[in-house]
Predict the 3D structure of the following.
Amino acid sequence: MSTNSKNDYENPSGIYSKNEISLEQAIDSLKSHPEIAKVGSILTFTGIVRATSLTGKKVSGMKIDAYEEIANQKISSICQELKASEGIIEVIIIHFKGEFEISDDLVYVIVGSSHREEGFKTLREAVEAYKKQLTVWKKEIYEDGNSEWID
């Protein structure tokens, strides 16, 4: 990731291959935002692969694929909509694609806000929005050798 000056800041939100960008790199990007002086809190959410499915099956891994063009447009739309909220300076959503093992990072959501109250509220809204609206396909791989595409 290149270091951006305050004049050429670019929101890094989007679909990335596994390990293509780190949480630290995404936060560093936010810290180069031209309005960073207005930010009093940076809040993050990291979604990871868990070992048990919602139906109780033992998970050994996950595969994620995405229709990147549409997913990137939706991520951009979610971020822009949430940035319109009072006190929200920036929203970054990074979703990974590829093959994952238990505890691997799947998604980062980062909110730069003037104060923590609106930041926490927006962080939750961003997580709920990408969970409901994003065009990604998730396949859970189970310890028994079976697999299943999930919502």
